[in-house]
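Reopening this one. Same input as before:
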Amino acid sequence: MADKDVELTTRAQEDDLVAHEAIEDERNKSDKQQSGNVLERYISFVSAINFGFILQCSWEAAAVTFQFSLSNGGPASIVYGSIFAGFGTTLVALSLAEMASMDPTVGAQYRWSATFAPKFNRFFGLMQGWITVFAWICSCTSNPALISNIVVGLAIFNNPEYVPQRWHVTLIMWAITIFPFLGNFWFRKLLNPLEAVGAICHVVFFIVSIITLVVLAQRSTVEYVFHTLTHDVSGWTNPAVAWGIGLLTVTYPLTGFDGVLHMSDEVKKARVRVPRSMILSVVMNGIMQFAYMLTVLFTIGDVEKVSSDALPIIQVYYQATGSKSATNLFVIMLAIIIFVSFFNVFASVSRLCWAFSRDNGLPFSHIFARVHPTLKMPLNSLILIGVCLCLLAIINIGSSTAFNAFISLPALALYISYFFPIFFLFWRRVSRNHPTPIPWGPFQLGKFGIPVNILALSYIIFIVIWMPFPTVLPVDGISMNYAGPLIGAVIVGGLIDWVISGRKRFQVPVVRQRPDF
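Same output, byte for byte:
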């Protein structure tokens, strides 16, 4: 009976918080509308869940990128790596969800780093902002990179005489970017139908794909799926190194769960709904990714044919169905979900850029912090992101392994952006001399907070170690993995910005005041 009373009390407190938060949101909205620099709250709980659920599109992204694991780690890296990535990313999501419950804000990581850093709050906030904005711009680039890879793969599959040029991929990426850019002008009207269609396709295509492969494809052995560790194909001969590099396929698709965070100013009752959306998104996508990749490994067919294909998943479906038409349909299904996800990613990163500009984090912040009075969205930030995507797409012309950069770079940058706020919160948790208590929100890890934070940080460190590794040896200018150097360049750029004007320009964000109860 006592436990039930505690549970009822907790629920009552949460309902009370939500009610007060709704009042607070309306008050803030009224105050900010006078300055014309406000985003309206219109995203419901179901839309918030669907937003994160579709944005990750984990099983589709894993299907298009599992060639990295075929040559590094093989099935062992995919199977056990999926389990490892699922648990690890869930721990990271729990840690960030706790902070989202305290302060659900578009700025998220950089705002929390500025809040919880023990010293040099403005410095860590600005540096975190540069890393997070760069991470999300790169993450936005990965969607057109994945789709262009599918388009080129299908072109080769249907016309073997076609010889793709690197500039072809760049043009395809530019063409794909136009649609979410224009679509975001009316994102409010598109959101509900787009999320509903995307969520249905995400689940239905998943079920249809698994049933088709299980019923029609030739079976692999249990020995192949669970005991094969590939370490003699890419040039990396050490099994542990090969397994670690192969994690890229299964860790990359589970990043980006913080996308709904950067829409917080448009989510109703954000303190409760944003954390739930983040956690549910990671759990559901992690389960679907593991189930799909396990199915693919058991139905992979002729491994040599699959490995030699420009897009290996094409051969998996073709060997199972024996039909080019059916194969085209299944692979196009992957592209459709990734394309719908692109709208969400584009919206999320434009809001993040807007929030960072609002706190004077970017040069010329006054331009990118504006909200269009009619469209009720940060139009200038949206244009900036579109230009950055088009410029990053040019990388593909100079390097035949640029696709690897488009995948490993956002994963590396996002994990780094997750590390610092979790570390600072952990430090605050164990600190005994801080004058003020942590302003907990309705979602709190309680006694599990310290072990969850430690395990999340350990997982991030482990993953970040492998992300900059080149996927093939020997390394030259073309096969080099430029993820590490590019991240380093962003950090150096952030330091230069701090020295020149950032330390004077950047404003330390102040956590929104919550009603006291």
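So the earlier flakiness isn't reproducible anymore. For the record, Residues 136 and 349 are 6 Å apart (CA to CA).
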